[in-house]
Amino acid sequence: MIYQVYVRSFLDSTGDGIGDLAGVRAGLPYLKKLGVDGIWLSPFYPSPQHDHGYDVADYCDVDPVFGDLEEFDRLVAAAHRLGIKVLLDIVPNHCSSEHPWFREALAAGPGSAARARFHFADGRGPDGSEPPNNWHAMFGGPAWTRVTEPDGRPGQWYLHMFTPEQPDWNWRNPEISAEFDRILRFWLDRGVDGFRVDVAAGLYKHPELPDADDPEADARARDSVNPLAWNQPEVHDVWRHWRSVCEEYTARDGRERLLVGEVSVPSAREHAKYVRPDELHQAFFFDLLGAPWDADAFRKVISEAMKDIAGTGSTVTWVLNNHDQVRAVTRYGEPATGGSGLGAARARAAALLMLALPGAAYIYQGEELGLPEVVDLPDDVLTDPIFHRTGSRARIRDGCRVPLPWSGQASPFGFTTGEQNAKPWLPQPDYFAEYVTERALADTRSFWHLYRDGLQLRSSLPQLGEGTLRWLDTPPDVLAFARDDLVCAVNFGTAPMPAPVPGVPLLTSGPCPPGVLAGSTAAWWVTDETPEP
Fold this sequence. Notes:
This protein is α/β, with parallel strands linked by helices. It is 27% helix and 14% strand. It is built from 14 helices and 18 strands. An 8-stranded parallel beta barrel has the order 1-2-3-7-8-9-10-11. Strands 12-13-14-18-16 form a 5-stranded antiparallel beta sheet. The chain starts with a strand and ends in a 7-residue tail after the last strand.
């Protein structure tokens, strides 16, 4: 199980209101106690922070707001002493408009080798005033921005599938592949255990950059759905090469290096292509995260993943939350003010289901506390470029990125020392007092203990190792599957029901009497005999 650390919101060691690498290092004992196998760090590279670090200006350094390379080395060493692996977030689809190569491209002019590293093109129309094609960016607006040439005249356009501050690399230029080779090796030489690959279905665009049939599809879905901009066949050659680089390092010392991709594609069958034996080790399977709270919907997405993805020999990589999505507690129906309720009960049950599935599990910081989405942040504190480009609060991501509450009864809840009189970079609501980690650790009924107990069982029970699952016959609204003699069952309905199989309850997501599966509750049983399908 890998724990996603959103660095700027995890723990602030300097008092400036922004989390940092030293704060992550200070939190490692907490993560060790929880039982994680590794951490994935959100981008901490030098960046103007137009998209919170996913606009990278220098891939081989640390932004001073987060620390420096020496602090990074201390973090890796401390994590390894505790048996925790460290994955970095790498962003190969685009960089920052302040990256030296992009600044060089602007100064070099049309037809230059510097511009060939990106997607520069002449505009359409008699004066070139219209974009080269009709694509729209995922964060709203056209996917093209016109530049002013060195002589001061309006000039070419460049492609950016997210924001104008994030120009897309042109991976058809061999210089880009060579540069990312250098970047990978820089961090692997510093001891990292692998990479989470941002926009892993991106990189290559259709070579002719034609108009799209549905140009606003990406912006409407806020997902990688434009078939001309994403999921091009050449991208698989990149992952084969990156896999070979990782295996080169593994051959040196026997320590596996992991590649996990953010892969947004139309189907589990397409997803499976990214985790073939010579490509990415893992790729996030987002269909479980996106499934409505319904037994049939969950069974469908799990079955498809086990059939198409696990069939490649890879593990399915399950996830219920991340830094781009509304938190599960709210997504499943939790009121905006937090507290216990239907959303919390469903999120607990979904967590226990996820931890029982064959494969890898990733959790997002605060998930183990049962944090709800902060849905009432005032407009003047919002930082998400989606909001600033569209004027809409729909699908903005600030609400799941509010800094973690660690202790106390009022903000900053132990997140920052406040030595510089700085407040957390996003305001924490008063009700976060109910979710502070010190309170969660002391309450054996908390989300934290459910995750900790589930992870301990997950690592100790051979039934929960690699393998398959068998679906069991159940009453309506109940989902149950067996892993040898261990059964996981979830009641998606509201009425209490008898347990699907006799046996000994090991762990439940909520209070329910033995032998009864309460509504919006999950449980694990060990049976005396192998249950029938």
